[in-house]
Amino acid sequence: MSKRENTYQPRTNLVHGGTQRSQFGELSEAMFLTQGFAYASAEQAEGRFIECPDDEFIYGRYGNPTVRMFEERIAMLEGAEAAFATASGMAAVNAAVTAPLKAGDHVVAAKALFGSCLYILEEILPRFGVEVTFVDGTDLAAWKDALREDTKLVFFESVANPTLEIIDVQAVSDLAHAVGAIVVVDNVFATPVLSRMLDRGADVVVYSATKHIDGQGRCLGGVILGSRDYVRGTCETYLKHTGASISPFNAWVMLKGLETIDLRVRAQAASSLKIAEALQGHPKLERVIYPGLKDHAQHDLCMEQMQAGGTVIALDLKGGRDEAFRLLNALDIVTISNNLGDAKSLATHPVTTTHQRLSEEQCDALGITKGLVRLSIGLEDADDLIADLKNALDAV
Residue 355 in contact with residue 230, Cβ under 8 Å? Predict the structure, then answer.
C-alpha cells in the first residue's frame, strides 16, 4: 500500500498505512529493538551521513523502521506531509515551540494551557530572551491586539485543559499568518479523529500519543506533524541533537493503537454526551462543562470544528475542594488518575494535581475552580458510568 498517495478512507489507512514488511512477510508490524544499524561498507556509512533516504537509518536517536511506520500512519490520519515521534507529549510541545525560536523573538499564547506547557512558556523561553504574551484564547480581538510584526509563533490548545474552552483555529491562524507567525496547535483533546487542524489553518500540530493514540494507558509518546521542511528540518535537527526520541517499543504500541483509535474515540465521545446530558442540572453541581452540550459557550464552533464534543467532561461541584474529594473517593468504576484518553474512565482534580503549580489568582482567571473535576470518559458502558457518578454525587 502506498504511503499517503492513495484514496482509501481513514479507517483503512489506520490499519494498513505506513506498513513496511521484512523479507519474512510478518503480518503484524515488526518491532526493531536496536539502537544502531550496520553498514555493508565504509562508503555506505559515509553516504548515509551525507544524505539518508527515508528507508535507511543511521542511529536510534535519528530514526527507526518501527518509529517510521508510526510516523507515516499518523501523518496519513492528520493529512500532514511529515511527522516526528518523540519520547512524550511534552517533548513534542517543547521541540515544536522551541526549535524555531531565538533571542528577541515574540510568542503569543493562549493563557489556558496544561501546567507543563505554561512552564515552558513562562519559565524556559524567557530565560533565553524570548518574549511571551498571554491572551484569552477565545477572544479574537485579544489575539489581534497581541500579535506584532516580530511575532514568530503562536501556541494554543484547540480545546483548553481542563476548562474545555474551544478556540477558533481558522480565525486565529488567519490573524497569525497576517504577521508571518507560525501556528502550533496542541490538539490532544480534539484528537486527530474529530478534527484535522492542518485543514483549519494550523502549521504544526502536536499530540501526546500517551492519550488517545495509545488509548490504553501503556506507554509515553508524542508526535509533531506539519510540513516536511518544518518537521524534518527545523524540529528533526533540534530533536536529533537534544535526544527526545521515542523508544521503538513505545512506537510499536502507538502504531497498534492507531488501528482502533477511530472506533474508540467515536464511542467515547458518544458516551460523553450521554453522561453530560444525564448529569446536567444535578443539584450538587454548579455546572456541567461539555462542548457537546448546547449551553456551552462555543457549542456551535465545536460542532463545526470537531463534529462532536470530545471525550472529556468537567464537573464543577458547588462545595469546592472538599466536595470534589468526596466525589472522587466515592467513585467505584471511574479511577482517580491524572491521565486522559484511556479505555478506562479517569477522574482528575486539576487544582491539586495537573495545575497545582498555578497560583490561586491564575486558577481563578482560567476558571479552574476548587470544585472542578475533569472526567475522561472511557469505553465502559455509559449507563454504568452514569450510575457510578450519580452514586458518588449522592455521597457528596
Answer: no
The C-alpha atoms of residue 387 and residue 269 are separated, in whole angstroms, by: 18
Q: Which helix (H) or strand (E) holds 328?
A: helix 321-330
Q: In sequence order, which residues have a C-beta less than 8 Å from that of residue 268 and are 6 or more positions away?
A: 311, 377, 378, 379
Residue percentage of the chain with pLDDT more than 90: 81
Q: Kindly report the pTM of this predicted structure.
A: 0.93
Cell triple for 211: 492519550
The per-residue pLDDT for range 288-310, each reduced to its tens digit, is 999 999 999 999 999 999 999 99
- Cβ of 276: how many Cβ atoms within 10 Å? 22
CA atoms of 371 and 323, how far apart (whole Å): 7
Which residue in this structure is represented by grid cell 516580530?
150
User: How far apart are alpha carbons 131 and 107 in whole angstroms?
Assistant: 6
* Sheet (strand 285-289) strand order: 285-289, 312-317, 372-376, 346-348, 335-336
Which strand (E) or helix (H) includes residue 289? strand 285-289
Closest Cα partner for 302 from 291, 289, 312? 291
- 47: which 3 cell numbers? 553516504
> Rounded to whole angstroms, how far apart are CA atoms 302 and 299?
5
Q: Which three cell numbers stand for residue 261?
A: 483509535
Amino acid at 228: R
The single-letter code of the amino acid at 68 is R
CB atoms within 10 A of CB 122: 17
pLDDT at residue 3 greater than cutoff 60? no
CA–CA dist 324, 392 (Å, integer): 10
Cβ(109)–Cβ(134) below 8 Å: yes
Q: Are 348 and 240 in contact (CB under 8 A)?
A: no
Band (23; pLDDT cuts 50, 70, 90): confident
What gap in Å lies between CA 206 and CA 184, rounded to an integer? 7
